[in-house]
């Protein structure tokens, strides 16, 4: 059984030890992210029972970025089922940077993973929708159900991304040319860019993890958000590609499904038990939060949570 006072002290201790760890730099290819104060830092756990434990800048709302890929994947699975998503997008590691065009070229244009840009743009295009606004509202709705109704689009962040996302537009056209895109390419890229441009707190991110940990019931709202058959698929994808080309290192050192974003957020899921989330803007060369990885790893290691442990 989880003892809440132990959990409080582990979160406090991990935040104190690693919340200002040195190294890394803010993402600067999205102008909005370059200007976020680098010393912001937070850590949160939400348990499958709905207990919330947090430390640091817990009210700060940061950019979800790539972590949004998990929510859109969840919706694509709900819309189409696991087999179709595997066939149309894939469930493997690319072994390459998150926005790699090379990874596409090497695999006949198939994105391989819903958790890299190509696969996430393909996931956005798969969502059943009448039009662009319907597609966007369904994706935002899933972020809110998994995390919190407070999750909203940031217009300045979205404008910053939409005016600099040339590489992602190229990826959308490549997907279209190889038959792996399922709506208008610029609509898919627009909606994908919006889904990256929402803001959330570290507790809201940990709530998303807790919803995945319970097999799809949000422990705070008590709503069933996902079918229990779909959450193992999402966690498998997070294991394979959640931290991009260092997903293997993360599995080796932490042993939990994880997902990071260039906004500085990172999430890990302990199935059946909790979501662990952290935020701090400085990133390593791969695009993962330096302090976030350390804080989440510290909580998981101290509590002894590792899926590969007997
Ligand atoms: N919006 C960012 C992009 O598409 C998200 C990338 C990320 O967080 N790794 O480049």
**Low-confidence parts lasting 5 or more residues at pLDDT below 50?**
none
CA radius of gyration: 18 Å
The CATH topology of the largest domain is Beta-lactamase
Q: What do we call the CATH homologous superfamily of the largest domain?
A: DD-peptidase/beta-lactamase superfamily
What count of domains describes the coordinates?
Answer: 2
In N-to-C order, the SSE pattern is: HHEEEHHHHHEHHHEHHHEEEH
Helix percentage: 40-55%
Shape: globular
Largest sheet, strands/sense/barrel: 5 strands, antiparallel
**Ligands bound, unique:** glutamine
Keywords for this entry:
binds glutamine, Beta-lactamase, three-stranded antiparallel sheet, alpha+beta, 14 helices, 47% helix, 8 strands
Summarize the structure.
The protein is an alpha+beta fold. It has helices at 4-18, 31-34, 68-80, 82-88, 102-106, 117-126, 132-146, 155-162, 166-177, 185-196, 202-213, 231-241, 247-253, 290-303, and strands at residues 42-47, 52-56, 62-63, 152-153, 198-200, 258-260, 265-270, 274-279.
Structural notes for this entry:
- The chain is an alpha+beta fold and 310 residues long.
- It folds into 2 domains: 4-65 and 200-303, Beta-lactamase (3-Layer(aba) Sandwich), CATH 3.40.710; 67-195, Beta-lactamase (3-Layer(aba) Sandwich), CATH 3.40.710.
- 47% of the residues lie in helices and 11% in strands.
- 55% of the residues are buried.
- The model has no long low-confidence stretch (mean pLDDT 97).
- Glutamine is lined by residues 65-66, 98-99, 117, 161, 168, 196, 261-262, 287.
- Residues 65-66, 98-99, 117, 161, 168, 196, 261-262, 287 line the site of glutamine (GLN).
């Amino acid at each position: 059984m989880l003892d809440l006072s132990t959990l409080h002290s582990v979160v406090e201790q991990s935040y104190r030890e690693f919340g200002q760890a040195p190294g890394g730099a803010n993402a600067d290819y999205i102008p909005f992210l370059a200007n976020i104060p680098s010393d912001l830092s937070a850590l949160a756990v939400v348990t499958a029972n709905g207990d919330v434990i947090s430390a640091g800048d817990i009210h700060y709302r940061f950019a979800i970025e790539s972590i949004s890929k998990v929510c859109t994947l969840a919706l694509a699975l709900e819309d189409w089922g696991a087999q179709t998503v595997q066939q149309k997008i894939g469930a493997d590691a690319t072994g390459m940077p998150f926005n790699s065009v090379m990874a596409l070229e090497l695999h006949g244009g198939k994105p391989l993973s819903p958790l890299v840009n190509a696969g996430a743009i393909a996931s956005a295009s798969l969502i059943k929708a009448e039009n662009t606004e319907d597609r966007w509202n369904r994706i935002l709705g899933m972020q809110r159900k998994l995390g919190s109704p407070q999750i909203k689009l940031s217009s300045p962040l979205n404008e910053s991304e939409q005016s600099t996302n040339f590489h992602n537009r190229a990826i959308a056209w490549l997907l279209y040319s190889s038959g792996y895109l399922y709506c208008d390419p610029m609509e898919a890229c627009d909606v994908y860019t919006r889904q990256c441009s929402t803001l959330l707190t570290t507790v809201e991110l940990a709530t998303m993890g807790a919803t995945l940990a319970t097999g799809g019931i949000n422990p705070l709202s008590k709503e069933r958000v996902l079918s229990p058959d779909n959450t193992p698929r999402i966690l498998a994808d997070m294991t394979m590609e959640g931290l991009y080309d260092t997903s293997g290192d993360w599995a080796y050192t932490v042993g939990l499904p994880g997902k990071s974003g260039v906004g500085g957020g990172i999430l890990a899921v302990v199935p059946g038990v909790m979501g662990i989330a952290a935020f701090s803007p400085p990133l390593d060369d791969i695009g993962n939060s330096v302090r976030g990885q350390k804080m989440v790893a510290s909580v998981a290691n101290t509590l002894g949570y590792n899926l590969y442990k007997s």
